[in-house]
Amino acid sequence: MSYGLEAVSTASRGEKRMVRFSDGREREYDLMVGAAGVNSPLRSAVFGPNAARQIDISCWRLVAPNNGEIDGWTAMLGNGRTLLGIPISERETYVYADCRTSEFGDGSVDVMKRLFSGFAGPLGPMVAALDPAIAVHRAILQEVPAKRWIADRHVLIGDAAHACSPSMAQGAGMAIEDAVVLAELVAKGGPVDRILEAFHEARIGRVAWVQKKSRARDKLRSGSSTVRNAVLRLFGDAVYRRTYEPLTRPVLP
Q1: What's the angle, vertex CA 19, arms to CA 48 and CA 13, rounded to 5?
Q2: Backbone φ, ψ for residue 248 (5° rounding)
Q3: Predicted TM-score (pTM) above 0.85
Q4: 8-40 tens-digit pLDDT
Q5: Which of 44, 52, 86, 194 is deepest in the core (most CB within 10 A)?
Q6: In terms of C-beta density within 10 A (0-12 exposed, 13-18 middle, 19 or more buried), how is residue 37 classed?
Q7: How many whole angstroms separate alpha carbon 79 and alpha carbon 201?
Q8: Cα(first)–Cα(last) distance of the chain, in Å?
């Protein structure tokens, strides 16, 4: 196993898959699994460019001092804005915030504080107290449509194959499921092309469901506050159960 190398190109070579790495070396494999994220360069090289598309949501992710007022998963919704806090220790809270990309500006903490200044406690004051120099991960969110990402002895998994909005918090979960299902199928043996077809059939419905419901949740939370509040107040529990129930089923028959 090697670390710090990037796969820069790949090609089918008989019954093997050739991979060229960033240090100039070439290696041949029975199967290549691409898991390089939403902007996977090998996805573009093998399947063509422009698979990822922006979804008009940009976000901040950071770890902030815990103000002692959050003891569980806490979410607040505003006009096209979302604020989430999850305590990860007595001292620290994971904070996620998003807005329309048109409002994101330079993505600075100052912009974040201005956009969420009207949010009440417990999360609003936490954002207001942020040090502008705090370490922040910023992203313009993108989606990669779930489809058949299979070439000869080459398959994409995770965000490289089906990135979507974090609205359902299933990005890591779907990537882990991909790896588990693919490993199970490979362990059973058989021709690589059949393994990859079985993998696609096992995963496409599940990841497409997550993308569909994530889009619906984004539309609801970024739309009219009157409609959103009424729907969540009257049908929130039922919508939540209906959205997540399919994900409680086994990932393999």
Answers
A1: 85
A2: -85, -10
A3: yes
A4: 899 999 899 999 999 999 999 999 999 999 999
A5: 52
A6: middle
A7: 39
A8: 32
